[in-house]
Amino acid sequence: xxxxxxxxxxxxxxxxxxxxxxxxxxxxxxxxxxxxxxxxxxxxxxxxxxxxxxxxxxxxxxxxxxxxxxxxxxxxxxxxxxxxxxxxxxxxxxxxxxxxxxxxxxxxxxxxxxxxxxxxxxxxxxxxxxxxxxxxxxxxxxxxxxxxxxxxxxxxxxxxxxxxxxxxxxxxxxxxxxxxxxxxxxxxxxxxxxxxxxxxxxxxxxxxxxxxxxxxxxxxxxxxxxxxxxxxxxxxxxxxxxxxxxxxxxxxxxxxxxxxxxxxxxxxxxxxxxxxxxxxxxxxxxxxxxxxxxxxxxxxxxxxxxxxxxxxxxxxxxxxxxxxxxxxxxxxxxxxxxxxxxxxxxxxxxxxxxxxxxxxxxxxxxxxxxxxxxxxxxxx
Amino acid sequence: xxxxxxxxxxxxxxxxxxxxxxxxxxxxxxxxxxxxxxxxxxxxxxxxxxxxxxxxxxxxxxxxxxxxxxxxxxxxxxxxxxxxxxxxxxxxxxxxxxxxxxxxxxxxxxxxxxxxxxxxxxxxxxxxxxxxxxxxxxxxxxxxxxxxxxxxxxxxxxxxxxxxxxxxxxxxxxxxxxxxxxxxxxxxxxxxxxxxxxxxxxxxxxxxxxxxxxxxxxxxxxxxxxxxxxxxxxxxxxxxxxxxxxxxxxxxxxxxxxxxxxxxxxxxxxxxxxxxxxxxxxxxxxxxxxxxxxxxxxxxxxxxxxxxxxxxxxxxxxxxxxxxxxxxxxxxxxxxxxxxxxxxxxxxxxxxxxxxxxxxxxxxxxxxxxxxxxxxxxxxxxxxxxxxxxxxxxxxxxxxxxxxxxxxxxxxxxxxxxx
Lengths: 380, 419
Hints:
The complex is a heterodimer. Chain A is of the alpha+beta class. In chain A, helix 5 crosses helix 7 (358-370) and helix 6 packs antiparallel against helix 7. Helix content of chain A is 18%, strand content 22%. In chain A, the strands form five sheets. Chain A has a six-stranded antiparallel beta sheet with strand order 3-4-6-9-10-11, with helices on one face. Chain A has helices spanning 2-17, 195-202, 218-221, 234-241, 266-278, 334-340, 358-370, and strands at 41-44, 47-50, 55-57, 69-75, 82-83, 97-105, 114-116, 128-130, 134-145, 148-156, 163-165, 170-177, 186-192, 224-227, 230-233, 244-245. Chain B has a domain at 124-405. Helices cover 12% and strands 37% of the residues of chain B. Chain B contains three helices and 31 strands. Classes of the chains: A alpha+beta, B mainly beta. Chains A and B meet through strand 12, strand 13 and helix 2 of A and helix 1, helix 2, strand 3, strand 6 and strand 10 of B.
C-alpha cells in the first residue's frame, strides 16, 4: 500500500512537472480509479487548479456538511451547453461533469486531524484553491452519461496529491476546532458516502430513482460569484460563457435567499435553508414523501409544511414533542430537535452530517418564533 | 503557542491512534476467540458492503453464519436481488456500534427478497424498504437486545409505499414503535410471524389490502394495530386480521412521546384507529389488560384539534368483528382515565368488556350519530360486549351498548399476492 501511495505521488508529481496542460475528460462508461483521470481539478504546486473550461460555482444557500467548505465546478464538452429550466435542476448535456471538493482550513503546521470552523470563502478570485493550511477530504463527481447521471466519491490521499475512488465510502475521524486555542474542540466522524448513499440524496424522485444534481438549479445559482475576472451573477456569467442557454435576466429567474443575509426576510432565509438541506428528500415525490412533509420553496404553508403536523414515523426523533412545527414555539417543535440532534436515529438530515449546524438551527428557531399562532390544539 | 502546539500534537497523535484503531468498521466486530475465524468474519463485513453496491439483477448474496458488525448503514438499490443468511440465529448483522445512517439496511429496489438472518441493535429502523414492488421478508429477525427501551430504534421491518409485500416466519423484538410496520402500501400478506416486546407488535398503517394471519403477538404494548394517520398521500382500508394469537400485550408503553403509538394504552390486543373496512375474525385474543379489541378515532389519541388535510377521514367505519375466541383482559386498563372509568362502571375487581369503542361518529354523514349500512361497526362475536366510552362528550355517558353493533357486514376479499 505504501509503495502504491508513493507511486501515485510520483505519477502526480510527473504530471505536475510536465508542461502538458491537463484537459477535462468525460468517461462515457468507465469509472476511473483516480480523480485526476477526469482532468477537472488537478494539484499543481501548492494549489488545486481548475482546468481550462471548468467553471466554479456556488449556491445562494447550500447544504450543511459538517462545516466543510465546498469547491463546486461544472464542465461541459466543447460546443454543448445546459438548457435553462425554471423550477428544477438545469438540463445538462451528456458529457457534463460536476465536481464538489470538500475541504477544511486547518491550524498552521502539519495536519494532525484538526480542522477549523472557519468562514466560507467568497468565490474563487484566483481561480484556484491554495492548499496551505487546507485539508482536502473528498471530491464527489457527478457525470451525465447517455443512460443518466452517475455519482462517484473520491477520497484524497494524505499527501494531497491524488484522490482515489472509494465506492464503499469511508469514515474520517476529525476534530473541529473554533480556532488554534483548541477551545470548543469537537471530535466527529466525517462520512464519505458510499455509492448507494449518494443516491440517498441525489435520487430526488424516489419512484424513478434516477440520480441527478441537486445544487445547480436556477434558484440556487441566481446570485453573485467572485471569478478571477470579477464579480458577476452566475446565471448571467454562464450564459455569457456559452454553457447555458435560455436563461432569463437574473431578476426574472427564481432566487433563493442567502441564508446569512439579514437584509432578506426571515421567511425567505428559512425557506431557502429548508430547500437546500431538506427538500432533496422532503418533496412530493422524494424519498421522504412517506412522511407527508414537503419543504420545497413553493410548498404551501399548512400541515404539509409541518405546521401543527403530527409525525408519522419519527421514532425517537420526536424528542417528546408532538408537532413538526408549533408556530411561535421552537422549543415545542420537532424541527429544531431533529436539526440539533447528532444521534443517527433522530437527526435530520439523516445523512451528510454528524455535527449539528448551530447557526442553521438558530435560523429555524428564529423563523418558527416569527410564525404566528397560539399552539396547535384547539381548545375544547 | 509552543506549548499549545505540543499539546495539540499529543492530542492529534492520540487521535491518529484512535483513527487507526477504527480504520474500518470491520475492526469493531466482537467476534470470538479464534483469531483466524474472527478475521474471516471481519473481512466478510467489508465484503458485504461491496457486494451490495456491485450487485447485479438476479444475484443471490449469501451471508454465511457469523456475527458481523457495522458502523454505518447498508443499502441496496439494485432490482431482483436476494439477500440470504444461514438462519435468523446464525447470521447476525449487528449495528451496536453504528455512528451513521438512519437504518440498518435501506432497500430502494424492486423484486427484493431477504431471508434467514437477523438485524440487531440499529440506531434507527432495522430494515427499511422504501417505494418498492414485490418484497419478500422471510425468516428474518429484527431485535434490540436487552430490556425494551425508549432509545431502541423505531421499526423492525418497515416496508413503506410498497406494492406486493410478503412478510412471513419472521420475528420482531424490542422496537420502540412497531416491530413489523407496513405503511402506505398495497397488497400485503403478513403471516406466521412472532412479534414481542415492541410498543406496537404489528402495524398496518395507511395501507390498502392487507391479510394478517397466523401471527403471534404477545408482550407488546399493543398487539396488532390497523391505523390511518392524517397528512399522508394514501388513506388505508380493507384489512383482514384473522387466526392470530394476540395475548398478554401488557408491556408498558415505552414509545416516544409524540409518536402515534405513544398513545396506545398498555394492554391493547387488536386496535383499529381511523381505518375503514377492517375484518377481525377467528383470532384468539386473551388477557390484554386494557381491552382485547379497541376501535377508535385519531381524535381520541389526544389530537382533538389536529391540523389535517381537509379530506382526512378520522372515523373508523365498516369494522366487522366475528368468530374470535376472547378471554380475560380489560381488568387493569392503562392510564388514569380508563382506570377510573373501569372502577366506576365495573368495580375494583370487574373488567371492561371485550370491545372498547371511543364513540366518535361522523355527524355530517350520520346526523343521528348512528352508523348505518356498510359503515357500521359490527360485533357478531358470541357474547362479546361493546363499551362506548363516549369520548366525544368527555366520557360523560359511557355505556355498554352492544345491540347497535349486532350486525354483520359483507366479508372482505382475500389478498391475492402474485410475487
